Amino acid sequence: MRGAKVKSKPGRRPPVKVKTGPELPLLPIAVAGILAVLAIVLIIYGVVSSRTTKTPAPPVVAGIPCDALQQTQVHYHAALQIVYNGVVHPLPGNIGIVNPTAPTCYYWLHVHPSDTNVIHIESPKSRVFTLGDFFSVWTKWGGTKQSLDATHVSTLTLTPDQKLVIYIDKLDDKTGPQLYTGDPNKIVLVAHEVITLEVTPPTVAPPPVFTFPAGQ
Q1: What is the Cα–Cα distance from 79 to 90, expressed in whole angstroms?
Q2: Within 13 Å and on the Cβ side, how many CA atoms surround 203?
Q3: Is the dihedral angle over the CA atoms 66, 68, 71, 76 positive or is it negative?
Q4: pTM
Q5: Is 47 exposed, middle or buried (0-12, 13-18, 19+ CB in 10 A)?
Q6: pLDDT digits (tens, 9 = 90+) for 169-213
Q7: How far apart are CA 167 and CA 188, in angstroms?
Q8: Closest C-alpha to 78, from 190, 199, 203
Q9: Which has the closest alpha carbon to 130: 155, 112, 154, 109?
């Protein structure tokens, strides 16, 4: 139609340029990622290995092993007093307990620090235990020779003017402390027995009275 205005088609707009930052170096990033993954794998492997690797069990002493748990089939208590210079010297706490802060095992003969001078006899079976057995466990546990004979008590060496006097008090029979003149290593540990190893002089007679904690 004459006189009609023909609309012109709009022209295409030029493409908008998007500004991009500098290209990241892909190779170093990939290497860093691989190293990070390897580090994580090594950490996990180390943790798993530490949990699965078993520490060698302590040696058996006098036929007495060190068990992961305390035994309950046979469980009774005896007491040991070492008297030197007229005074009772307490036994070290935790004798027979390996790694006391987080125990890894218990010998059948052991001492809890809460029960001063009390030997706990805890075994999965009935057998005879002697004072010599306890000194053997004490030696292996502490790494220092604990001797027991006429001239030695633990780490003490008696002088020529000293003498070892031994008393055994079986509290259940109510006979009181009795002198013992045999080999102290052969003293059999029985329930509610108080063994006193007294280095004289001075002489403490009768020996100091011992009372077991309540419930023992």
Answers
A1: 11
A2: 7
A3: positive
A4: 0.74
A5: exposed
A6: 999 999 999 999 999 999 999 999 999 999 999 999 999 999 999
A7: 13
A8: 190
A9: 109
